[in-house]
Structures are given as C-alpha cells and as structure tokens.
Amino acid sequence: FIDKGKNKGKKKQSTKEKLMSGSGLGRKLVFEQAAKKTNQKTRGNYPATVAILEVIQHGLEKGFAQGQELEAKRFGELVMSSESKALRSIFFATTEMKKEHGTDAQPAAVKKVGVLGGGLMGAGISHVTVAKAKVPVRIKDVSNDGVLNALNYNYKLFEKQRKRRILSKADLQAKMLQLSGGVDFTSYNHIDVV
C-alpha cells in the first residue's frame, strides 16, 4: 500500500537507445546519417547546414561553452560568405516584391472578350464570360465547325437553365446574342481582352 505513491524508477532503455545516447560511437553514427541526409537535400550548396551539425557535435563532445565559441566563430565565417550574401539578396528582393503594389494605372473596363478556339475550353470560357461577367464574346476558330460547336455547347447549357426556370426564353436569347464567332480576326480590333 505504501509503495503505490513512490516513484517506480526510470523506464528501461533499449540497447539501441543506450548505444545512441551514451556512447561516442552511436553519436558519431547519428551525425554521419544527419550529414548524409542534409547533403542529399542541399546538394552541398549551403555550407551553413554542415557548420550547424559540426557546432552541435562539438558542443555535445566538448561542452556548452566550447560549443558556443565554435558557433560564434562559424557564424562569423558564414555571414561573410558569398552564399550568405546571395541568400540575403534573395530574401530582401522577395520581401520587396511582396510590398510591390503595381503601377498607378487603373484597370480598363472590359466591354468585349475574344476567345481563341471553339473547343471545350474555349466554349467553357465563353460561357462563363457571358453568363457570369455579362460581357459579349467573339469566338475565333480555324474552322466553322469549331465555332458552331462552341455556340451549340453554350446553347445547351443555357437551355438547361431555361428548363430549370433559372432563365426565361428571352434571357436565353439575349445571352446567345452576346456570343458570336468566325474563322478570321474581323472585329478583333474592337476586343478588350483575348
């Protein structure tokens, strides 16, 4: 009854755990594996990763104070390296790009859209443009069949909405009148975006 409150002792360590934590051989193996994996990932391009492992290993073997001394020395060497300079340059450039808000130009109003190709993608883009953006679309394809397929695709989608009473017959006709097409670039000089 009295023994229940007492600490029953530490959990037993496996042989593997004993080798890894207590012996220099196990520690050496861990650092070799870490160096190997790090080198695979960095391909030897980042000298700081090698220095980090070296400093940690030195600190474990020689003590905390000597580990800090080596850390300060390696940091001083690395901060002056060409790799460090390049990485800082990349960091500051990407940070500056995030701040970039573009120019003072205002977006232009889109009054007419051109779509190249009457295939599935072109037909889908033209449908979304007319249905959601409510902007007229000119479809250009290499053949009249491609243009007709795109127009037919749009008609079927609008007809499905009409049958579900989402669109009236007049709305369907108005949306279809916003679609046009051809095999040449006539009227593309009046298009705002392609």
Description:
The protein has 194 residues and is mainly alpha-helical. Helix content is 62%, strand content 6%. It has 8 helices and 3 strands, in the order H-H-H-H-H-E-H-E-H-H-E. A 3-stranded parallel β-sheet has the order 1-2-3. Strand 1, helix 6 (120-133) and strand 2 (137-140) form a beta-alpha-beta unit. It starts with 14 loop residues before the first helix and ends in a 12-residue tail after the last strand.
Please summarize what this structure is.
Helix content is about 60%, strand content about 5%.
Key terms:
194 residues, mainly alpha, Rossmann fold, 2 domains, three-stranded parallel β-sheet, 3 strands, 62% helix
SSE blueprint and pairings:
Elements: H1 15-22, H2 24-42, H3 47-62, H4 64-79, H5 82-99, E1 113-116, H6 120-133, E2 137-140, H7 144-163, H8 169-177, E3 179-182
Parallel strand pairs: 1-2, 2-3
